[in-house]
Amino acid sequence: MSGLSRRRLLIGGGAALFVLAGCGGEDESGAPAGAGGGPWEFTDDRGKKATRDSRPTKVVAQISAAATLWDFGIRPVGIWGDAKNSDVLKGNVDVNSAQWVGQTWGDFNIEKLASLTPDLLVAPMQTKDQLWYVPEDAVAKIEPLCPSVGINQFEVPVDKVIGRFAELAGSLGADLNATAVTGAKAEFEAAGAAFGETVKAKPGLQVAFVSGNKENLYLGNAKIFSDLAYMQNLGVNFVQPAVPANEPHWEVLSWEQAGKYPMDVLLYDSRNPSYFTTDLARYPTVANLPAIKANQAVAWNPETPSTWAAFGKALRDLTGKLSTFKTVA
How far apart are the C-alpha atoms of 191 and 47, rounded to whole Å? Predict the structure, then answer.
């Protein structure tokens, strides 16, 4: 994959790099599509229709997609993604209950996938029509083994992303009326409403999502990323970086340019926090930012699973912090 995206940033100062329609529905009886042994189909966010003679039961999913499906009661038999950082990716997934078919960027074991005799492969999409963490040369080899479903997270707010996963999970037999599911959705909606009220009370607050590596500071373009886009829809005034049209995820700055924009609040990448916390002596331009001086920098996990439960909690935590912040830039 060319270009920068959220997951292709240097993680924690180490060497691993990351890049970040129709639907299935119900039959006339109200049962999930494919229930009762009949044909199953789901049109994904590429516009591709995945079909099976019966509802898929052996699902293989990218780790963050697996986390979302898990909260709906779907238990993948296989997973792939970044095994080293799985603790921040997996949500509630029991990674010991599934087989890894790939554990690093560019690693995808077709033979291992085939051994699982999968019914369906599921992945989020961080760029248009590209299955996340699936090498392009592997895509054609997957299709003879099983259909695939891609759920778009590019320029789509996280509430819509979760909604699409809910449609998929429902078609796979998940009980969307289960107490755990409806309760998590209600809590997510309540957290979003409280977050919106807090943001509304601070109309002048300028917020930036930032990440970095040893060479550069990265300033995130909120409308591209699902979590940030959702918060922007709730009223957060995100700093708008200058991004090239063909690489819209980030503005890449030198560390000397850290003060280019007024920033009252920094949401810094919790996967590589040292640039904004413990290494400030090495990055004096960051140390001198008003947001840092005012202690208005907050760790944000850009890999928060796209589930109502996980994101609702993250929103509540952030709301508590934002409620105490003020304009300082």
Answer: 32
Of 176, 199, 226, the one marking the end of a domain is: 176
Can you state the angle between helices 63-71 and 308-322, rounded to 10 degrees? 100
The CATH number linked to 148 is 3.40.50.1980
Rg (CA), the chain: 20
Termini Cα distance of the chain? 37
- For the chain, give the percent of residues with pLDDT over 70: 88
Locate 274 and state its tokens: 């040292």
Whole-number pLDDT of residue 37: 64
The number of beta carbons lying within 10 Å of the beta carbon of residue 76 is: 26
Tell whether 223 and 94 lie within a shared domain: no
Q: Are residues 196 and 163 in the same domain?
A: no
Residue ending a domain, choose from 176, 207, 224: 176
Q: Are strands 216-220 and 206-212 parallel, antiparallel or unpaired?
A: antiparallel
Structural domain includes residue 277:
yes
When mean pLDDT is compared across 11-15, 145-149, 269-273, the lowest value belongs to 11-15
Specify whether 39 is located in the same domain as 166. Answer: yes
Residue 139 to residue 248: CA distance in whole angstroms: 25
Half-sphere exposure of 22 (CA within 13 A, CB side): 12
Give the domain range for residue 92: 22-176
Q: Are residues 265 and 124 in the same domain?
A: no
- b/e map 270-302, b = 16+ CB within 10 Å: bbbbebbeeebeebebbeebbbbeeebbbbbbb
Yes or no: say if 243 and 219 are a contact pair by the CB < 8 Å rule. no
Q: In what helix (H) or strand (E) does residue 208 lie, and over which residues does it extend?
A: strand 206-212
In percent, the amount of the chain with pLDDT more than 90 equals 81
Q: What is the reported pLDDT for 279?
A: 95
Q: Are 124 and 132 in contact (CB under 8 A)?
A: yes
